[in-house]
Amino acid sequence: MSKVKITLVKSPIDKTKRQKDTLTALGFRKVHQTVEHDNNPQVQGMIRVVQHLVEVKQA
Question: What Rg, from alpha-carbon coordinates, does the chain have?
Fold first, then answer.
C-alpha cells in the first residue's frame, strides 16, 4: 500500500473542535510536524477535513 506524508503548515488555533480532533487523530502535536500514514479512504477523508491546514505529498 502506498504511503502519504502530511505536514501541518498552519496553526489549528481558532479552528473548530472537529478540525482540531482530526489533526490529533492524524498524530499532529505542533506546527511543521510531518507524519506518515497509509494512503486509504479513512486517511483521505481526514485530510479533506483539514486540507487548508496541511500539505500532502506521496511518499
Answer: 11
Q: How far apart are CA 10 and CA 8, in angstroms?
A: 6
Roughly how many angstroms between the first and final C-alpha of the chain, as a whole number?
11
Domain that holds residue 34: 3-58
CATH at 35? 3.30.1390.20
Note the pTM of the prediction, 2 decimals.
Answer: 0.94
9-59: pLDDT as tens digits: 999 999 999 999 999 999 999 999 999 999 999 999 999 999 999 999 998
Count how many domains the chain has.
1
